[in-house]
Amino acid sequence: MHAKYGLALDNVIGADVVTADGRLLTTNASENEDLFWGVRGGSGNFGIVTSLQYRLHELGPVFGGAVFHPAAKAGEVLRFFHDYSQAIPDELVIQCGSFSLPDKTPVFAVAACYCGRPSEGEKVLKPLRTFLPPIVDAIGEMSYLQLQGMFDPFFPPGRLTYVKSNFIRALNDDVIRAIAEFAGRSPSPFSFAPFVEHWHGAATRVGITDTAFPHRQHSYNLMFWSNWESPSESDKNIRWTRTSWNALRPFLVEGSYGNYVSDEGDLFARAAYGPNYERLVALKKKYDPTNFFRMNHNIKPTI
Predict the structure, then answer these.
(1) What is the dihedral of CA 182, 183, 189, 195, to 10 degrees?
(2) Domains and CATH numbers, the chain
(3) Residue 43's closest CA among 273, 285, 279, 303?
(4) Distance between CA atoms of 186 and 60, rounded to whole angstroms?
(5) Contact 38, 280 (CB under 8 A)
C-alpha cells in the first residue's frame, strides 16, 4: 500500500542491529540515527537486524483483485494502464504483467487494490473492469489478507527464479510496443514477465536522500520475474530473461529496486543506491570496515 502509507521502510520507526564487532545497537530517529538511515534501504550491509518497530495502519476490507486479458492484448492493456494511472488516488495501487493461468493460457493481467471505502473503490475501478472485456474479472470486496494471498498458488516452494528489473524512463508508445513484444513469450509458463509496477503517492513524496532507498521519482518499474521447475531448464530461462531485459535497456534508467537485483555486479549495485552511495560507503567504513557483511548487494568500505 505504498501509495497511501509509503513503503515498508518508510514505516520503520526503530530497529535493533547486531554489528560486525558484536555490538547490539538500537537505532531510531534519536539513537544511532546514521545507522537508522542506512538500514532503511541499504540492504544487509551494516549488520544483522534482530527486531523492527513499525508504524501500523488499521485497514478494513479492500476492493481489489485482478482482471485477466489475453496476452495478445498486452499493448492495449498497457496503454490503458498508462492513461488510467495518471489520475488514480493514493488509495489505489495497480500493477500489470504477463503470466500463465493454471491451464497454461498466457494472459496479461492488471492487479489492483483500493484501500478506501469499498463502495468508492467499486466506482474508481469500474474503468479498469470495462475498458476491454476480460477473460476473467476477479475484482471484488475482500480482506487485505485475502488479497495478499491471491497469487500465492502461482509461487509454490521449490521453483527456480531469476530476476531482472529497472525503472522505466517513460511509459510511452515505443516502450509499450517493446514490452508487449515479450508478453506470453517466456519459455516457462510459471514466469511473471514482463511485469510493470506503478509507483505513486506517499512513496514518491519522500525525499531521495531522506532514506537510503533513493528511487522516489520514477512512476513505473519494469520486471522480468522468471520461474521454472527443473535445473535442466535454467539455461534457456536465464538466457531469455537476459535477452529480453537487454532489448529494453534503452528505455530504462540505470537504477533498480535493490530487492530485484540479481547478478549484475558492483556497478549495477552502486546504481541501485544512486546519489546515496557515498554516504552509504561512509557508514560501511564506520560500522563494517572489514566488509564482513558482503553476501548481497555489497557496499564496499572504499569507493
Answers:
(1) 100
(2) 2-57+273-287 (3.30.465.10), 67-260 (3.40.462.20)
(3) 273
(4) 37
(5) yes
Residue 88 amino acid letter = I
pLDDT tens, the chain, 303 aa long: 579 999 999 999 999 999 999 999 999 999 999 999 999 998 889 999 999 999 999 999 999 999 999 999 999 999 999 999 999 999 999 999 999 999 999 999 999 999 999 999 999 999 999 999 999 999 999 999 999 999 998 899 999 999 999 999 999 999 999 999 999 999 999 999 999 999 999 999 999 999 999 988 889 999 999 999 999 999 999 999 999 999 999 999 887 777 776 666 667 777 788 899 999 999 999 999 999 998 877 888 886
Task: Give me 262's grid cell.
Answer: 540479481
Residue with cell 537485483: 261
Question: If you ran DSSP here, which 8-state letter would residue 10 be given?
Answer: G
| Strand arrangement, sheet containing 24-27 | 24-27, 12-18, 48-54
